[in-house]
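Section 5.1 Outputs to date
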Amino acid sequence: MAPRLPLLAVSALALSGCMTVGPDFKAPPAPSAAPTYAMSGETPAPSVRLDPDARTAVFDIVERLVQEGLLQEEGNDFYSLTEKGKAAQDK
C-alpha cells in the first residue's frame, strides 16, 4: 500500500492544477506589436525618428569607429569590439 500513496498524492496534485483553469477560461489578448515599428500607411510612434540625416549620422559614427580600429565588421551589419575597442571601453 505504501507505494500507492505517493502516486495518489502526485495524481491528486496534477488534477487539482487542471481545475484552476475552469470552463470559463479566456485566453489573454495577444501582445501588441512593438511601439517602435509601423507598417506601411500607419503613423509611427512619436519615439521613432524617420529622419534620413539621423540614420546617416549613425552610419558615419560606426564607420569612424571601424576606421579607428575600435570596431570590426563581421558582415551583414554586425560589428564586434576589437581589443583596442575593449580597452577603450574599460577606461
